[in-house]
Amino acid sequence: MNAELIAVGTELLLGDIANTDGQFISQRLSELGINVFYHTVVGDNPARLKAELERARSRSDLIITTGGLGPTYDDLTKETVAEVFGKKLVLDRESLERIEGYFARRGRVMTENNRKQALLPEGCEVFANDWGTAPGCAVTDGSTTLIMLPGPPSECQPMMTERVIPYLRRFSDGVILSRLVRVFGLGESAVEARLRSLMESSLNPSIAPYAKEGEVLLRVTAKASSREDCETLLAPAVDAIVAELGDAVYGVDVDSLEQVVLSELKKRGLTLATAESCSGGLLSKRLTDLPGASEVFPGGAVSYSNAVKTGLLGVPEETLRAHGAVSSETAAAMALGAARVFCADLGVSLTGIAGPGGGSEEKPVGTVWCGIACRGRVRTLRLDLGGPTRSRGLIRRLATSHALFELLSDIKNM
Amino acid sequence: MNAELIAVGTELLLGDIANTDGQFISQRLSELGINVFYHTVVGDNPARLKAELERARSRSDLIITTGGLGPTYDDLTKETVAEVFGKKLVLDRESLERIEGYFARRGRVMTENNRKQALLPEGCEVFANDWGTAPGCAVTDGSTTLIMLPGPPSECQPMMTERVIPYLRRFSDGVILSRLVRVFGLGESAVEARLRSLMESSLNPSIAPYAKEGEVLLRVTAKASSREDCETLLAPAVDAIVAELGDAVYGVDVDSLEQVVLSELKKRGLTLATAESCSGGLLSKRLTDLPGASEVFPGGAVSYSNAVKTGLLGVPEETLRAHGAVSSETAAAMALGAARVFCADLGVSLTGIAGPGGGSEEKPVGTVWCGIACRGRVRTLRLDLGGPTRSRGLIRRLATSHALFELLSDIKNM
What we know:
The structure is a homodimer of 414-residue chains.
Chain A: E1 2-8, H1 10-13, H2 20-31, E2 35-42, H3 46-59, E3 62-66, H4 77-85, E4 89-91, H5 93-105, E5 119-121, E6 125-127, E7 136-141, E8 144-149, H6 153-169, E9 175-184, H7 188-201, E10 206-212, E11 215-224, H8 227-245, E12 249-252, H9 257-268, E13 272-276, H10 282-288, E14 299-303, H11 306-311, H12 317-323, H13 328-341, E15 346-352, E16 367-374, E17 377-384, H14 392-412
Parallel strand pairs in A: 1-2, 1-3, 3-8, 13-14, 13-15
Antiparallel strand pairs in A: 4-5, 6-7, 7-8, 9-11, 9-12, 10-11, 15-16, 16-17
């Protein structure tokens, strides 16, 4: 099955937003084994949209449009699709009731133009929108299926996951199942070199790597007649990857380093506190991105000035004088201080030079010390995260990822 | 001048990355007054790329491609463009020397396949790449100009700014200049309603609003024969917007709320400390995203647990018992505590329910209290940031934006 995506919206052509819906839908389709050959973005212009739809129809089995389903006069995707596919737009009573309910729950009166959102091509399969007002739908004509989704990512992406994926699975002659192996601290080419023979010999499941800011994600995808058969195919491949890459694999079917750190802490009833200098709160922000962090994370300090490192975290002034703020000794004292001040089992610290200024020959931009304290004992490590194309933001993100990854081994050894 | 963008790369179709180059280039072209009518993404497939190039050539004055300029066998953009435009690829000696120099500076040997990057269409204008190895170029044929840029955003985006914009300005019969007015706390429709007559009557400069997570950006763009004439056109329009929207305008030609807060603090020699509960470090992360924050930001506390609110920030246990952690009283005590602990002129606090769990009828998800302490005095305000489509992440981001915006008036009144 060959697919293409058409995003409708002048805001995309003006660069006000990036086409993140396109990325999200492509990822999901790729997991189903559906090839995506084109993304197209057109403005809110029915003539140009019509030409793109006609072309897409002539070359793709599946077309997914995003955007242009709203209540205003320039939302014209449904009208244009109906024209190209020769369908009438008819009122879908259930959709209208849902939209009326949406407004009623908010104590607002539904304006008349919102009725337009309940007009759908005759004979389509309706995708109810639990995240907004405009429903999506699938229209089939001959061998081509066209799916329309609303544009806002907060609606489009859950609709893709909850409505479109189950719909598309019905057309599949088998089951496709993926597992995601997450690797930290090895480059993509190192991962590929170590897995080359495995990747070349394994067709079902297939193994596809992709790199993502210091991480490598390996998607292992099996196709079989049942979920159980997929799982039987997947298990030995995932085991072989984990055996080859060892501790660099930090999780399978997990979302992020912070998620694994939190769940390992919870499993053991441990608590963690942070002391951040160069990362300025990003590490605690990442830990608290996830609901339920409060069980294991009492808090942290952003000790941007030396006075705070000394006064709040108890870093000896002598240490700062002798070794500087960016040093193993300071990182150690900060980590111990965090655990003590916040009464936590573990303390983690980051102190470094995020740039663009502040570097020296001895400590160039990107030099970061990480400290990890476990019940009174502490270890530190130096990270060299600089490079000609490494921004301040990237250095800060990488520093926090390294800290989270390093924490894992300490937590597991407690 | 009508333009379109073609991004080349299978990684975009697999959803490994979003087409952020497309967004960036669109923004820059829109600032030049160039209309972008299409974005297309194709994989590393010369036949499909050729078809897209031919179509683009038939309908656009300017085509910008991104990606496919690298050294490997599947980088085929130049070869395909040369075929469509009937040009030979010839070795550009200066580009080759730059590439050799790039490797030499890194102490690495240039492999033979890197020579390929110095092959460029005959007669093109070369855009030197100071951020990587593959040069870009512009090819003109009849009334169509095609520009090729490398794909990695860290190369594509500076090449667009430093090479392509000056190149395109040469074709313009005048100068185009924009100013960006940033508005917080008013919705896009409210801004449009208040500026409608101004927007409708002002053609040069034009006024274009766009919404961005709690903010509205107004781009005011003038076209004239000189930079001075543009500035003369822009000034009264910007003044009229500021007069109409008042304090909701937090800056003109600034990047972000945090930038304005930091610069206002610096101007007055003031310092600020943070105490964060629901935002978990995001506020201090935003303040320290910018280099030089250390002058005005000694540090902050992430007081996720009540024990930290009491022990570190001095929130009375009685306050937490009587009013709860999410209350005006707790926010006030946290802000005062932050200023005291970190010896800062101002303290700002956030405590609330970011969700998805933890809400109640009285304090639903999205209820956030913000406290601002100025030299012993404190004020608080309640933010209601919840809503059916508001994620935990969005609520946290909006809470920090509100805190930064509110801080501005306190700083300016000191």
